[in-house]
């Protein structure tokens, strides 16, 4: 049987964010890309709701000994899940993860209906603004057109800001890889270095000329670094 690989997207991310990773590893790994239920209605803390969703997903699919990879908010979910279920995670990979500090740069509420503002915010995610294609901008714009979805986004971002993971990081014994963009303006390089310092078994790789989503902006380098880590 193939080993499982779970890929967790960020607050504005989607399944397509992991296309390069999926294409590179799908022949050797059982890849799962659950769509995080960020827009669900519930009365729980938003981040806690996402962690419980992942717990249920792992249980329903009978996943054991998984490689868990998270970008941005997905990294935050991965950290909490790994801390609670170390027996379920063989390797943890974080890229641009929240949990220590994140500049989401949205203000108190995303500007609905302002297409150029949304384009600017999406481009801000990357070092190379050309990565913010029309299709990507349109996807985010459509999300922000929905008042309820906007509210859920803000609630989830605030939940993540409240959940400071520094106290639990030294307790995570899982081998961890940190792949970070040197030009990440949302979770800056100092965040990566703090993760590296606090996680007992962490390896940090910085990618030059790269922003908040290395798996999208530098897919070949990302996959090479990940491949090397998983082979050790």
Automatic annotation (TrEMBL):
Keywords: Hydrolase. The keyword Hydrolase applies. GO terms for molecular function: hydrolase activity. Coiled coil: none annotated. The keyword Hydrolase applies. Residues 6-223 form the AB hydrolase-1 domain. This is Alpha/beta hydrolase.
């Amino acid at each position: 049987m193939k080993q499982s690989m779970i890929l967790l997207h960020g607050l504005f991310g989607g399944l397509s964010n992991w296309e390069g990773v999926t294409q590179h590893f799908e022949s050797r790994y059982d890849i799962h890309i659950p769509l995080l239920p960020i827009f669900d209605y519930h009365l729980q803390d938003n981040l806690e709701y996402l962690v419980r969703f992942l717990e249920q997903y792992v249980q329903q699919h009978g996943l054991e000994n998984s490689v868990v990879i998270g970008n941005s908010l997905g990294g935050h979910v991965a950290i909490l899940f790994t801390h609670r279920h170390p027996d379920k995670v063989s390797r943890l990979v974080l890229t641009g993860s929240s949990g220590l500090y994140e500049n989401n740069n949205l203000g108190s509420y995303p500007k609905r209906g302002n297409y150029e503002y949304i384009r600017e915010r999406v481009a801000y995610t990357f070092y190379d603004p050309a990565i913010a294609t029309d299709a990507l901008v349109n996807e985010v714009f459509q999300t922000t057109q929905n008042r309820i979805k906007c509210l859920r986004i803000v609630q989830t971002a605030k939940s993540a800001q409240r959940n400071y993971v520094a106290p639990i990081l030294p307790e995570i014994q899982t081998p961890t890889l940190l792949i970070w963009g040197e030009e990440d303006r949302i979770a800056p390089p100092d965040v990566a270095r703090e993760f590296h310092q606090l996680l007992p078994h962490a390896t940090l790789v910085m990618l030059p000329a790269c922003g908040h989503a290395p798996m999208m902006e530098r897919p070949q380098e990302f996959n090479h670094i990940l491949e090397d880590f998983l082979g050790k």
